[in-house]
Amino acid sequence: MVRFSRGCLFQAACWFLYGRLIATLLCAFLISSVCLVAEARETHFAPDVLVLVLSGIGPFDQVAINYTSEIPKTEALKDIEALVRETSWLVRDTRVTVARASTPGAKPTTSLLFRTPPLASSRDGTLPLEPFISVLRRFPRIEVSYLVYSPFEFRGLKELENKWVKIVLKLGSNSYSYRVTVKNRDFKRLALPLIQPKPMREAAVGNSRQAKLAIVLGLASASALIAYLVAARLYYRRARVQRGRP
Questions:
Q1: What is the C-alpha to C-alpha distance for residues 246 and 241, in angstroms, rounded to an integer?
Q2: How many CB atoms within 10 Å of residue 52?
Q3: Residue 14: how many CB atoms within 10 A of its CB?
Q4: Global pTM exceeds 0.70
Q5: Which residue ranges make up each domain of the chain?
Q6: C-beta pairs of 33-42 under 8 Å, 24+ apart in sequence
C-alpha cells in the first residue's frame, strides 16, 4: 500500500485548487466571448418607405421615393414640396405613379419620381440623409439607398443613434444604404453630421465591455494567485516546522 506524506497531500490539494480556479477563469472568458458575439447579431429590416438615388449618370440624379402602400397623389406631392423647402434643391420632372400589384392579395404602391442636380458630393465623399428623414419621419422605418456610378470616395456618416433616430449604413461595391429607425418623430432638427464623428459611443461601449471582461479576468487571476501563494506559504511553513526550524 502506497502512503503519501501530509506535505505531499497538502501540495496536491493546493495544485488542485489552483487548477480549478484557472478553469473558472477560462470559463468566464468563453462566456464573455459568447455574449459579445450574440450582441453582434443583426435583425431583419423592412422599410415602410424606400428612397432610391441613382447618381453619377448624366448631369442630374434620378430620385425615387417608393411607398410600400398606395397613398394619395396630393400627399406624395406635399412630400416633394417639403423636401424642396428643406433643401432648396432644384427639382424637375416630378411625377407620381401607382403600381398595381400583379400578385393576388398584394397591395398597390405609390412612387414619387424626380430629377435633381447631383446629391453625392465627390469632393467631400458625403451623401445627404437628413432631408429625407425630416420629410418622411411619419414612417417608423426609412431606407435611403444611393447608387453612385461616378468616381466617389465615401467619407460620410456610417452610424448614429440618439433619442430620435437610429441609423445604420450597409455598404456595397457602389451602393450605400442607410437604414433609419425613427424612435421619436417629434424633433425639430436632427443636425446630423455629413461626416462620421469620432466613435465616442462605440469606444465607450467597447471600453465598458473590455473593462467588465478585464475585471472578471483580473478577479479570477487574483483569486487564483492569492490562493496559490497562501497554500504555498502554508506548505513551506509546515515543512520548516517538521524540520525543527522556527
A1: 7
A2: 18
A3: 18
A4: no
A5: 18-44+198-236, 49-197
A6: 36/209
